[in-house]
C-alpha cells in the first residue's frame, strides 16, 4: 500500500451529523377577563375587608375559572412545524394555575385575615364553625362515643335537634340524649355524619373541634382588575441526521520512512508533551524570577517614597515652625524694649520730682 497508494483512489470518508430544530406554540391570556366574573363581584363586595387581598378554596377557584372562560381573551402563536397533541395546555388550566400561584395554609391565618377568606355560605366558614361547635360541645369524660352539650345551648330537647346558634337558625339536626337535670349528649357518629353531609372543613380530635388541614389561594383583586398577561409556551424539538462525505486524497510518499505508524504517532506525541512540559517549567521559572525582581523593585520604590515623604513633611513643618519662632523672638525683643522704655520714663519722672530735694540735700551737706 505504501508503494502503490493509488488503490485508494476514489475512497470517500463518510460521517453523519445529528441536528435539531424547535417548533413553538405560545398562548397569552389577558387576566382582566377574570374581573368580569360573578365570583369576582362577590369577592369585591365582601364585608369587613378593607384591602384587595382575598383567599379562596380550590372549589371557589374552579368556580371563578369557569365563570371567566366566557369572556377571556387569548392569543396564540404557533409555528408551522408545530404538531398539536393531546397534552396541550388549555386556557382553563392556565387561569387556574395563575390563581393558585400563591398558596397559604389556614394555620397561618389570623382573625383579621380570616375575614378575607371567601366562603359560601359564610356561617360555614371553618373558623366560624369551629368556634360555634366548641362553644356548644365539650368532651364527655365518661364516653368517648358521645359529646356533652354545654349548659346554655339553645333549643335542646331529648330526642330532638340542636340549634347551635348559627345564623338563620341553621341546625345540624343532631339528636340529643338525656335530660335537663343530668345534661344532654349527642352521638359523635351523628355529628361526624352531618359534618360530611355539609362538607364542613372541621374535625373532632378527641379534645375539641379543629379546622382540617387545608390551603387557600391568595389573590389580589386589584392586580386582576388591572389585568396582566399570562404566557405559556410549548416547544417541540425535532431531531434529524445529515450525511456528509469527504474525498480522500491519495499520493505517493517521497520517503517511506516517514510513514506514520501508531507507534510513531505515540512517540511524537510524547515528545511534544515533554517539550510543552519543559517550556511550561522554563516559563514558570522565568515568571518567578520576574515577579521577584518586580517585587524587589516595588519595595525599593516604596522605601524611596517613604523617605521622600518624610523629608517633605519635615520641610513643611520646618517652614511653618521657623517663621513662627522668628516672630516669637521679635515679639519678645519688642516686649523687652517696651519694658526698658517704661523703666526709663519712670526714672526720668522720678528725677524731676526729686531734683529740688536733692539740691537742698546737697547744699545742706556743704
- Count the DSSP helices: 8
Q: pLDDT average, as an integer?
A: 78
Radius of gyration: 52 Å
Helix content: 40-55%
H and E order: EHEHEHEHHEEEEHEEEHEH
- Please tell me what the overall shape is: flat
**Gap from first CA to last CA:** 161 Å
Helix-strand makeup class: alpha+beta
The biggest beta sheet reads: 4 strands, antiparallel
Q: Percent of residues in beta strands?
A: 15-25%
Number of strands: 12
Strand order of the largest sheet: 5-6-8-7
Low-confidence stretches: 164-170
Could you give a quick summary of the protein structure above?
This protein has a domain at about 15-230. Helix content is about 45%, strand content about 20%. The chain has eight helices and twelve strands.
Give a structural overview.
The structure is a single chain. This protein has 366 residues and is an alpha+beta fold. It has a domain at 14-229. 44% of the residues lie in helices and 21% in strands. The chain has helices spanning 38-44, 58-68, 91-99, 111-114, 126-136, 188-197, 221-226, 262-365; strands at 12-30, 53-56, 73-78, 103-105, 137-139, 146-149, 177-179, 183-187, 202-204, 209-211, 215-220, 229-247. A four-stranded antiparallel sheet has the order 5-6-8-7. Strands 3-1-12 form a three-stranded antiparallel sheet. Strand 5 (137-139) and strand 6 (146-149) form a beta hairpin. Helix 2 packs across helix 3 (91-99). It starts with 11 loop residues before the first strand and ends with a helix.
Amino acid at each position: 500500500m505504501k508503494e502503490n497508494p493509488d488503490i485508494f483512489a476514489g475512497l470517500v470518508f463518510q460521517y453523519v451529523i445529528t441536528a435539531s430544530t424547535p417548533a413553538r406554540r405560545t398562548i397569552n391570556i389577558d387576566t382582566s377577563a377574570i374581573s368580569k366574573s360573578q365570583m369576582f363581584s362577590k369577592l369585591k363586595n365582601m364585608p369587613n375587608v378593607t384591602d384587595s387581598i382575598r383567599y379562596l378554596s380550590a372549589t371557589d377557584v374552579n368556580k371563578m375559572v369557569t365563570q371567566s372562560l366566557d369572556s377571556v381573551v387569548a392569543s396564540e402563536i404557533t409555528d408551522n412545524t408545530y404538531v398539536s397533541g393531546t397534552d396541550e395546555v388549555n386556557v382553563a388550566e392556565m387561569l387556574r394555575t395563575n390563581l393558585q400561584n400563591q398558596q397559604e395554609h389556614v394555620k397561618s391565618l389570623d382573625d383579621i385575615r380570616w375575614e378575607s377568606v371567601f366562603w359560601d355560605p359564610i356561617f360555614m366558614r371553618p373558623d366560624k364553625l369551629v368556634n360555634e361547635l366548641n362553644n356548644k360541645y365539650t368532651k364527655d369524660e365518661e364516653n368517648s362515643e358521645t359529646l356533652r352539650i354545654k349548659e346554655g345551648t339553645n333549643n335542646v330537647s331529648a330526642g330532638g335537634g340542636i340549634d347551635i346558634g348559627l345564623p338563620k337558625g341553621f341546625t345540624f339536626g343532631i339528636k340529643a340524649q338525656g335530660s335537663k337535670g343530668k345534661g344532654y349528649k349527642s352521638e359523635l357518629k351523628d355529628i361526624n355524619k352531618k359534618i360530611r353531609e355539609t362538607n364542613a372543613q372541621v374535625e373532632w380530635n378527641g379534645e375539641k373541634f379543629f379546622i382540617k388541614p387545608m390551603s387557600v389561594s391568595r389573590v389580589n383583586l386589584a392586580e386582576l382588575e388591572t389585568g396582566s398577561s399570562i404566557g405559556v409556551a410549548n416547544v417541540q424539538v425535532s431531531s434529524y441526521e445529515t450525511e456528509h462525505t469527504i474525498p480522500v486524497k491519495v499520493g505517493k510518499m517521497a520517503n517511506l520512512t516517514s510513514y506514520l505508524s501508531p507507534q510513531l504517532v505515540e512517540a511524537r506525541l510524547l515528545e511534544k508533551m515533554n517539550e510543552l512540559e519543559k517550556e511550561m517549567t522554563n516559563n514558570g521559572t522565568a515568571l518567578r524570577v520576574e515577579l521577584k525582581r518586580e517585587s524587589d523593585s516595588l519595595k525599593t520604590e516604596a522605601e524611596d517614597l517613604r523617605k521622600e515623604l518624610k523629608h517633605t513633611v519635615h520641610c513643611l513643618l520646618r517652614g511653618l515652625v521657623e517663621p513662627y519662632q522668628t516672630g516669637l523672638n521679635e515679639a519678645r525683643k519688642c516686649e523687652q524694649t517696651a519694658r526698658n522704655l517704661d523703666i526709663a520714663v519712670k526714672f526720668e519722672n522720678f528725677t524731676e520730682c526729686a531734683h529740688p530735694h536733692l539740691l537742698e540735700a546737697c547744699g545742706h551737706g556743704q
